[in-house]
């Protein structure tokens, strides 16, 4: 799941069959990621765009970053040089974007997908070089074998919010201020889905952007009274950084994890959605 910059550099020196994906992106500045890639990227890496390639266009309902159609994803990954047996390493600049590609590739059945620990910052700190411009890989054949039961839709989440039946624990990957509804810089409504617990994905990172150990991740999860057997549903603003939370939860040993792809931006697009604010659902109201 996780590879160090030293391990990646060694594998590249040995000319192993590796595809490196640069997934840097800035919400609200859709061209910024490609520009950063062009100015300097890990040698051999190809750029993959969150909104053009890892999402369908925003929709109501659907959210800001709906999952692409499987055929479109397969064509995209094949164009990046990906096949079933290659090693894939995805990186960003610790903004939570790389895990979206990691999750999608894993969801489609690829068995050798890794995140680069510490991202491009760790690569630079290790003294390794960057390359400018754009690169391409030879198109390959990629066969998707989508996993079943890895996602949930609005109806399933809404039933949990209303009934609180305890079958799944909703986990909100956004920061605490957005979760409590004190501020909402992106979406039209502030707050969270009732019964959700707040577990920001950034809690699993060290200050230098490297991931905390599996043991540290387990301790964070245990602080919310969650265990390896707890079924959870992860969401965020639009289904992107929720993938980073899923990555962290997998490292903590949880296996019953589902993604709500539309996340908050889809949830609030539905008439009569139940909204909560505060740390522990102190206030609830129905969206008009």
Automatic annotation (TrEMBL):
GO MF, one example: thiosulfate-cyanide sulfurtransferase activity
PROSITE patterns per the UniProt record, alphabetical: RHODANESE_1, RHODANESE_3
Key words, A-Z: Pyruvate, Repeat, Transferase
SMART domains with a match to the protein in the record: RHOD (SM00450)
Superkingdom of the source species: Bacteria
Repeat as UniProt keyword: yes
Domain Rhodanese: 14-132, 164-276
Coiled coil (residue ranges): none
Pfam families: Rhodanese (PF00581)
Keyword Lyase attached: no
Protein name according to UniProt: Thiosulfate/3-mercaptopyruvate sulfurtransferase
Gene3D superfamilies, per database record: Rhodanese-like domain
């Amino acid at each position: 799941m996780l590879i160090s910059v030293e391990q990646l550099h060694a594998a590249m020196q040995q000319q192993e069959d590796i595809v490196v994906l640069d997934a840097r992106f800035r919400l609200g500045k859709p061209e910024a990621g490609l520009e950063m890639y062009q100015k300097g990227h890990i040698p051999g890496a190809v750029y993959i765009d969150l909104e053009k390639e890892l999402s369908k266009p925003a929709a109501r309902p659907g959210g800001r970053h709906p999952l692409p159609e499987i055929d479109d994803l397969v064509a995209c990954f094949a164009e990046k040089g990906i096949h079933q047996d290659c090693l894939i390493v995805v990186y960003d600049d610790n903004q939570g974007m790389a895990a979206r590609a990691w999750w999608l590739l894993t969801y489609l059945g690829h068995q050798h997908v890794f995140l680069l620990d510490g991202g491009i910052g760790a690569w630079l700190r290790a003294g390794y070089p960057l390359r400018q411009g754009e690169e391409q890989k030879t198109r390959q054949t990629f066969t998707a074998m989508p996993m079943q039961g890895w996602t949930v839709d609005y109806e399933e989440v809404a039933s949990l919010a209303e009934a609180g039946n305890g079958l799944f624990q909703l986990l909100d990957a956004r920061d605490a201020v957005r979760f409590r509804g004190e501020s909402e810089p992106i979406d039209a409504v502030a707050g969270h889905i009732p019964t959700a617990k707040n577990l920001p994905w950034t809690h699993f990172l060290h200050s230098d952007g490297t991931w905390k150990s599996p043991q540290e991740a387990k301790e964070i999860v245990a602080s919310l009274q969650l265990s390896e057997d707890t079924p959870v549903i992860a969401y965020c603003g639009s289904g992107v950084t929720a993938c980073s939370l899923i990555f962290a939860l997998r490292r903590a040993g949880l296996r019953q994890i589902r993604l709500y792809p539309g996340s908050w931006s889809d949830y609030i697009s539905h008439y009569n959605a139940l909204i909560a604010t505060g740390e522990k659902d102190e206030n609830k109201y129905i969206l008009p």
